[in-house]
Amino acid sequence: MIDQPVLFCLHYLGGSARTWRPLAERLGPHARCVGIDLPGFGDEAHKPGGDVAAMADHVAARITAEAPPGPWLIAGNSMGAKVALVLARRHEDGDPALAGLAGLVLLAGSPPAPEPMAEERRQAMIAWIDADPETRQREAEGFVSGNVGAPLDPEDHACAVEDVLRANPDAWKAWLAGGANEDWRERIGVLSIPALVVSGAEDGDLGPESQAALTLPHLARQRHEVAPGAGHLLPLERPEMLAALILAMLTAPPRAAQAPTLPPAFAALMSSDRVNTRLRSTLRERMREPDGPFCLGTDERATLAACLDRVLPQTGPGRIDLARRIDARLAGGTGDGWRFVALPPDPKAYARALRSLDGAAREAHGRPFTALGGAEQDALLDRATSGDLPEVAGGLDPDLMTCWFEELRGEAVRTFLAHPAGLAAIGFTGIGAGGDEADALPGYRLTYLNEREAWEAPVLEAAGDAR
Amino acid sequence: MNLSGQRRYGTDEVVDVVVVGTGAGGAPLLAELAAAGLKVVALEAGPNFDPAAYGFDETLADEIYWTEERLSGGSTPEAFGANNSGTGVGGSTLHWGAFVPRADPRDFRLNTESGEGCDWPIDHAELVPFYDRVEAFIGTSGPTPYPWDEARRFPLPPVLRNGPAQLMASACDRLGIAATDAPAAVVSRDFTVDPSVPERKACINCGFCHQGCRTRAKASMDVTYLPLAVARGAEIRSDARMHGVERDKAGRITAVIYRSGGRDHRQLCAHLILCAGAVETPRLLLHLDLATGSGQVGRNYIGHVATQVWGTFADEVGMNRGYPSSLITEDFTRPKGADFAGGYLVQSLGVEPLTWANSVARGRGLWGRALTDYLKQYNRVAGIGINGETLPCDANVLTLSDETDALGMRKAQIDFGYGSNEDALNRHATKLMREIWEAAGAQDVWVLERVAHTLGTCRMGRNPDASVVDAVGRSHEVENLWICDGSVFPSSLAANPALTIMALSLRTAGAFLKGNR
């Protein structure tokens, strides 16, 4: 539990301290937001801006001046997130001025690696910032509306456009031509500070797959949340959601890498125009753990999670919460079109089967299934497969456990492979069969043994021996 | 498909025919009847899809599968849903594999030949002109000449082979088995057949045939017969779930009741043709107590023996690329020295990852580290599989369960199990497939027991006591009721069924027009 911390907030390119007002209002007394204008932006627009290290110096000085009384956190959106990562590295390297840093909130963050961005767009942005007022106004409008999933409240939109227009063009260009391209991967390494990572499902270059590929590998203790329908300007688009996630993080900071990472090659394919928009949005939403409703009891869910760890072990770092997803599917009532007639409907079959497993564990070892070692759990699952678990009150008939365990195995792999991390792990390139132009889908030109197309190669190589 | 300009009929207008279901059974006859000037309305339980919006994803493809729950019993319970049951305008052809062997002539006289199973009331020769017409219209790709049928001509050259096909071809060559490019209802070249049916571009080898064809290269009904039907004046109502009928004193059907938009509608009609497939057609008949006098509805449910053999190769296979089943051998339609009636076809198999992994987890029974390690072999595995004759049998039956669905209709329960003939055929085929795969260099070979397709339950026959419809699909009991789908099959035939269902559909349409003019 981190009690009433200060949250120092670092804005996106063209934003300012006031970008954080909606979030500050919603966090209220639980955490005090202190928005900081980065050099060249907001009230610091008279400054020319600088590289990432210079921005970090600027922020460190502000934090020192602010002298927060207790532990504090840094939130960064996009450009601001890269600065936050650098400060976290300095903290872990023992910088006494940053000793109080207790957590990171990285929102659609620019990663330690050079930011993925089309060169054409970069050059266009560098050009229009110095153009005539009419062009600047038009482009600034387009920049703000192009970076959100749905139109902002008109007042927030107007503020955001005004912030872009008051930014120092030199600072704007310094980021696009410099800071965004700086490679901090080696220097940042792997941070152990707890971090909340949030991405927008409709973000262009820094969406969920980019975060999973480029940011999560640098964080040993992270939670990654995907904001459905949101774009890049998350503090303006999703202040409620962010406030709730930040409060949850203060209560229980992540202790391990929770979300699975993606190989950069798979993330790049997923972001490319070889993947259709419907599929990309769907894969991104599947990177988010479902909110419910759920139907299993707490003990049943725990037994299911323990069981799935044995059925489909995930080596990490990070893992897909298969039990949570299956529980949500059971509660949603959707199915695959059939079930064994001998089994009761799915939710009941699961609840009973899990009770059987847990009861068998208690009978054999005097402990719940979740408290057993892996080998003991495997032995019970082996007995379930052969139908010779004991009868348990409220459980499933021993011979039906065979059918249920078959169902569970199928559901585990289907759930795993619906997630991009699952597809990436097996080196699947089929998502790249074609984008949005239905009349000009590329498909596969090569289908013979041992033939690879150029666009497939990085994904296949990242999956190791596969193909 | 585009339904915007279609003709509309009033529900109080007595249309000549209501067709229930728009798949391989319903679509061709809908086009035929409309072209003959009849007022025809098709009711499709599922939505109307835009193929361009399919997602190239197995989970998204749930939208084209019939995922309302069915109960599977018997000694070899069959999987439904994505395994064989579709929904939407186009029915199961939205997800079918488009593998189009013609039925073997001997399979129609199996009882005469072997004393097992039963003969069809029609002869293969009667179907040939209908096969020809269907293939010319939907655009089939394959090798001409075709080794097992000299008369067969494919309008288009074969689709590209993929890795599993190459592996099977070289192994068959070594073993002296004839194997060649598959007969596929996928256009290998840009294809136009009729001005009222939009051009279909050549297959792009994406491999997602079973998830809905985004380019319309695969011959689903919504890109072939249904646009033709609409151009000839048929109306197709999607999201229209038939669940009732009204009948007059003589027992003739006078109206069809269907649920759409949350309420019931009543369409007056002179005739009803049920084309809802071998599960939903008998389920409706049993639910409505229609044509049940002989006690035959629901009986003789049939699947196909569809066992697969899998192996891991030194080659990079990448089996998701290309048309999934691009090689065939028909050398085993009557294996020499076999101890069973009938025979089977063998095809090469490439399978998308969820479907494959589901088979591995359920069918191979792997879990734990063995499972995760094996899944990572995805790009090095390939399969071969069969489609084998299944005889009708008293124990294999569709009944109504006590559980009900959202409409209050009782769910279907399907009991299915192999008899001794299927077991013997399966042993023979499994041994052969192992030999082929070992000759191909496969390691870590394993067998997936699997049942495919849904057939039987309303079989056709001359004897009203032993069948539900006559040889052209007309009910023995209800004068203005017809059936045309896989449910009328008296036996499974070794061939995959959809092409034969389409041929039967044209034939039923002809008989209907002849008898009702």
Topology, pairings included?
The complex is a heterodimer of chains A (467) and B (517).
Chain A: E1 6-10, H1 21-27, E2 32-36, H2 52-66, E3 72-77, H3 79-92, E4 101-107, H4 119-128, H5 133-146, H6 154-166, H7 169-177, H8 185-188, E5 195-200, H9 208-215, E6 222-227, H10 234-237, H11 239-251, H12 264-271, H13 277-285, H14 298-311, H15 322-332, E7 338-340, H16 346-365, H17 374-385, H18 398-418, H19 420-425, H20 457-462
Parallel strand pairs in A: 1-2, 1-3, 3-4, 4-5, 5-6
Helix pairs in contact in A: 1-11, 2-3, 5-6, 9-12, 14-15, 14-16
Chain B: E1 15-20, H1 26-35, E2 40-43, E3 70-73, H2 110-114, H3 124-138, H4 163-175, E4 180-181, H5 225-231, E5 235-237, E6 241-247, E7 253-260, E8 263-274, H6 277-288, E9 299-305, E10 308-312, E11 327-329, E12 344-349, H7 353-364, H8 369-375, E13 381-388, E14 397-404, E15 410-415, H9 420-439, E16 443-448, E17 451-457, E18 481-483, H10 498-515
Parallel strand pairs in B: 1-2, 1-8, 2-5, 3-15, 8-18
Antiparallel strand pairs in B: 4-11, 6-7, 7-8, 9-17, 10-13, 10-16, 11-12, 12-13, 14-15
Helix pairs in contact in B: 1-5, 1-10, 3-10, 4-9
- The number of E-state strands of chain A comes to 7
- Can you tell me the CATH superfamily of the largest domain in chain A? Alpha/Beta hydrolase fold, catalytic domain
**Largest Cβ-defined interface:** A-B, 65 and 75 residues
Beta strand % of chain A: 5-15%
Q: What name is given to the CATH topology of chain B? A: FAD/NAD(P)-binding domain
Assembly category = heterodimer
The biggest beta sheet of chain B is recorded as: 7 strands, mixed
Order of helices and strands of chain B: EHEEHHHEHEEEEHEEEEHHEEEHEEEH
Describe the fold and architecture:
The complex is a heterodimer of chains A (467) and B (517). Chain A is α/β, with parallel strands linked by helices. Chain A folds into 2 domains: 6-261, Rossmann fold; 298-418, no CATH class. Helix content of chain A is 47%, strand content 8%. Chain A contains 20 helices and 7 strands. Chain A has helices spanning 21-27, 52-66, 79-92, 119-128, 133-146, 154-166, 169-177, 185-188, 208-215, 234-237, 239-251, 264-271, 277-285, 298-311, 322-332, 346-365, 374-385, 398-418, 420-425, 457-462; strands spanning 6-10, 32-36, 72-77, 101-107, 195-200, 222-227, 338-340. In chain A, α9 links the parallel β5 and β6 (222-227). The two termini of chain A are 47 Å apart. The mean pLDDT of chain A is 95. Chain B is an alpha/beta fold. Helices cover 23% and strands 20% of the residues of chain B. Chain B has 10 helices and 18 strands. Chain B has helices at 26-35, 110-114, 124-138, 163-175, 225-231, 277-288, 353-364, 369-375, 420-439, 498-515, and strands at residues 15-20, 40-43, 70-73, 180-181, 235-237, 241-247, 253-260, 263-274, 299-305, 308-312, 327-329, 344-349, 381-388, 397-404, 410-415, 443-448, 451-457, 481-483. In chain B, the strands form 4 sheets. In chain B, strands 1, 2, 5, 6, 7, 8 and 18 form a 7-stranded mixed beta sheet that branches. Chain B has a 6-stranded antiparallel beta sheet with strand order 4-11-12-13-10-16, sandwiched between helices. A 3-stranded mixed beta sheet of chain B has the order 3-15-14, with helices on one face. In chain B, a hairpin with a 5-residue loop joins β6 (241-247) and β7. In chain B, α1 packs parallel to α5 (225-231) and α3 (124-138) crosses α10. The radius of gyration of chain B is 22 Å and the shape is globular. At the A-B interface, α13, β7, α17 and α18 of A face β3, α4, α7 and α8 of B.
